[in-house]
C-alpha cells in the first residue's frame, strides 16, 4: 500500500494541499466503506433465451469484475427449477420472467418472497403457428404486394379454431410458464380477437388455465417449442428468441405477430433474487445491478452497433447455443416472419432505451391485472393492494442506488436514467400501446380490467 508523509508534503506544498489530499482520501475510503461486498463469489441462473444476454455481456465485458464480483453463469432446465434454486439459495439470483417474482410473492404456484431491482429487457417474444395453421390463417388476412399486412390479429385464427372444433380436435397452444409474459401475451392476443383463452381457478385446485377456453394452453420449456410444434402436439406457441426464428429456419412454422405489436415496452425479463438474499447482501446486490445496467447500455448504444458481437457471444453452447444466424435474425433489428418476409424491427429487443432497465411499479401492476383477468388471482382486490404488491416486489429504490453510484463514478450520466429522485415508478400511459387499443393506467388497475369484454373483473369468480 502506498504511504504518504503528510508533514513533508505540508512543508513542500503547504497546508492547503495537505487538507485537499486528506479530504480526497476520506472520500475514497467512504466509498469503499459503502461498497464493501458481503459476498464476492456468485452463481446466477438463466434459461437459454436471447434475453439472458445482459448477464453474458456483464460477464464477458468484465463489468462484474469491475465491481469485485466473481460470477458463474449456469443454464437451468426450466423456469420452475430456476425459481426453486433461487429460493433455496443454490443460486444467488437469476434471469427471470417478469411475472415470476410477482407470482411467487402472491403465492401462485410457489410461495416465497422474491424481488427484482433490475429489468433485463423490453419486448422480445413472438407467436408462431404451424405451417398448416398459417395456410388457413392467410385466407382471412389482408394482403399487400403478396404479403400479409401486419400486425396479424387473432381474428384470422378464430375460423381455424372453429374448424378444429367442428372436427372434434382441441386446439392446443404452448407457453413457457403459467406466470410468463408469453402466457399473458398469448391470452391478450387471443381475447382481442374474441377467442377465450380459458381461466385458472386455484381456489378450487384447478391450475390448468383451460376452464371455459376455446383453446387449450399448456406449458412447454422454450428450447422444446419447435420440436413440440413439429411433432403436432401443439399448433402454435408464444416464446422468446431464438425459438421463433428457429421454426422459420427449420421450415416448420411461421411467426404471425411479435409482442411489440401485442403490447410494447413493458418489462419482459428481470433479474430476480430472494428477499432474504437481498437483505443479507445489500452491497453485493447493488454491485450486481450496476454491472447489469452497464451491460444493458452496451447492448443498445449507438443504434445497436454491438448487437452482432452480442449475438456471436450468446451463440456459444454455454449460453443460448443456437446458430449465430438464427439469433441475429431478431437481435440485430430485423425479424423474419414467413420465410423470406424479413421486416425492420429495431425495437424487437430493447435492453436500455426507454429506461428499459428501470423496475417500474406500473409494469408489475400490469402483470397483476392479467393474473386477475385470467383467475390466477381468484378474487377482487382493491387498487391499493396492487400498489402494495408492486412495491413489495419491484424495487426502484435499490436500482436508484446503483444508478447514482454509476453516475458518481462517471460510468453513466443522469441522462441514461429517469429522474431518480422524482420518478413515481409509473410509465406514462401513452408509452405502451396494445393491439386492442385499450389504454393502461397502472394507478387504476380495476378500471383497466373493466374495459375488457373477456376476462374476470369486479367481483367475478370462476366456479
What is the compact description of this entry?
The chain has 20 helices and 17 strands. It has helices at residues 6-13, 15-34, 53-60, 63-66, 79-88, 100-106, 131-137, 158-166, 181-192, 225-231, 243-250, 259-262, 275-280, 282-304, 307-314, 324-331, 361-373, 383-393, 396-408, 445-449, and strands spanning 41-46, 70-75, 93-97, 114-123, 125-130, 143-144, 147-148, 172-175, 199-201, 206-211, 216-219, 236-240, 253-258, 267-274, 334-336, 342-344, 349-350.
Can you tell me about this structure?
By secondary structure, the chain is α/β, with parallel strands linked by helices. The protein has 2 domains: 41-122 and 266-449, 3-Layer(aba) Sandwich (D-Maltodextrin-Binding Protein, domain 2); 126-259, Periplasmic binding protein-like II (D-Maltodextrin-Binding Protein, domain 2). The protein is built from 20 helices and 17 strands. The chain has helices at residues 6-13, 15-34, 53-60, 63-66, 79-88, 100-106, 131-137, 158-166, 181-192, 225-231, 243-250, 259-262, 275-280, 282-304, 307-314, 324-331, 361-373, 383-393, 396-408, 445-449; strands spanning 41-46, 70-75, 93-97, 114-123, 125-130, 143-144, 147-148, 172-175, 199-201, 206-211, 216-219, 236-240, 253-258, 267-274, 334-336, 342-344, 349-350. The strands form 5 sheets. The protein has a 6-stranded mixed sheet, with helices on both faces. The radius of gyration is 24 Å and the shape is globular. The protein starts with 5 loop residues before the first helix and ends in a 14-residue tail after the last helix. Residues 1-13 and 15-34 have low confidence and may be disordered.
Amino acid at each position: 500500500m502506498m504511504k504518504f508523509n503528510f508533514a513533508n508534503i505540508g512543508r513542500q506544498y503547504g497546508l492547503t494541499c495537505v487538507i485537499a489530499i486528506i479530504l480526497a482520501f476520506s472520500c475514497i475510503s467512504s466509498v469503499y466503506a459503502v461498497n464493501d461486498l458481503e459476498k464476492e463469489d456468485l452463481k446466477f441462473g438463466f434459461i437459454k433465451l436471447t434475453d439472458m444476454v445482459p448477464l453474458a455481456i456483464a460477464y464477458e465485458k468484465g463489468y462484474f469484475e469491475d465491481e469485485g464480483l466473481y460470477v458463474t453463469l449456469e443454464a437451468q432446465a426450466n423456469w420452475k427449477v430456476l425459481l426453486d434454486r433461487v429460493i433455496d439459495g443454490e443460486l444467488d439470483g437469476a434471469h427471470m420472467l417478469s411475472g415470476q417474482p410477482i407470482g411467487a410473492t402472491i403465492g401462485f404456484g410457489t410461495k416465497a418472497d422474491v424481488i427484482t431491482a433490475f429489468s433485463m429487457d423490453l419486448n422480445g417474444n413472438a407467436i408462431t403457428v404451424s405451417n398448416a395453421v398459417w395456410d388457413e390463417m392467410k385466407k382471412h388476412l389482408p394482403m399487400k404486394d403478396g404479403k400479409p399486412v401486419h400486425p396479424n390479429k387473432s381474428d384470422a385464427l378464430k375460423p381455424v379454431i372453429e374448424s378444429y372444433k367442428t372436427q372434434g380436435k382441441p386446439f392446443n397452444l404452448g407457453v413457457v410458464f403459467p406466470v410468463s409474459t408469453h402466457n399473458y401475451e398469448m391470452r391478450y392476443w387471443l381475447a382481442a380477437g374474441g377467442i377465450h383463452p380459458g381461466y385458472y381457478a386455484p381456489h378450487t385446485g384447478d391450475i390448468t388455465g383451460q376452464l371455459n377456453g376455446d383453446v387449450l394452453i399448456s406449458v412447454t420449456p422454450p428450447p422444446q417449442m419447435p420440436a413440440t410444434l413439429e411433432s403436432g402436439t401443439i399448433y402454435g406457441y408464444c416464446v422468446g428468441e431464438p425459438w421463433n426464428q428457429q421454426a422459420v429456419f427449420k421450415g416448420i412454422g411461421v411467426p404471425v405477430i411479435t409482442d411489440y405489436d401485442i403490447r410494447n415496452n413493458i418489462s419482459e425479463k428481470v433479474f430476480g433474487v430472494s428477499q432474504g438474499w437481498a437483505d443479507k447482501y445489500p452491497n453485493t446486490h447493488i454491485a450486481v445491478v450496476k454491472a447489469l445496467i452497464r451491460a444493458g447500455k452496451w447492448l443498445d448504444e449507438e443504434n445497436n452497433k454491438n448487437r452482432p458481437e452480442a449475438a456471436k457471444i450468446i451463440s456459444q453452447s454455454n449460453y443460448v447455443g443456437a446458430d449465430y444466424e438464427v439469433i441475429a435474425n431478431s437481435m440485430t433489428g430485423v425479424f423474419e416472419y414467413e420465410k423470406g418476409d424479413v421486416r425492420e424491427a429495431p425495437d424487437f429487443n430493447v435492453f436500455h432505451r426507454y429506461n428499459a432497465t428501470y423496475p417500474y411499479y406500473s409494469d408489475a401492476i400490469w402483470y397483476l391485472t392479467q393474473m386477475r383477468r385470467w383467475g390466477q388471482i381468484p378474487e377482487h382486490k382493491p387498487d391499493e393492494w396492487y400498489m402494495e404488491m408492486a412495491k413489495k416486489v419491484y424495487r426502484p429504490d435499490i436500482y436508484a442506488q446503483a444508478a447514482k453510484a454509476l453516475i458518481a463514478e462517471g460510468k453513466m450520466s443522469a441522462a441514461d436514467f429517469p429522474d431518480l429522485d422524482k420518478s413515481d415508478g409509473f410509465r406514462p400511459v401513452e408509452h405502451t400501446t396494445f393491439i386492442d387499443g385499450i389504454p393502461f393506467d397502472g394507478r387504476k388497475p380495476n378500471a383497466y380490467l373493466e374495459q375488457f369484454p373477456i376476462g374476470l373483473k369486479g367481483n367475478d369468480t370462476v366456479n
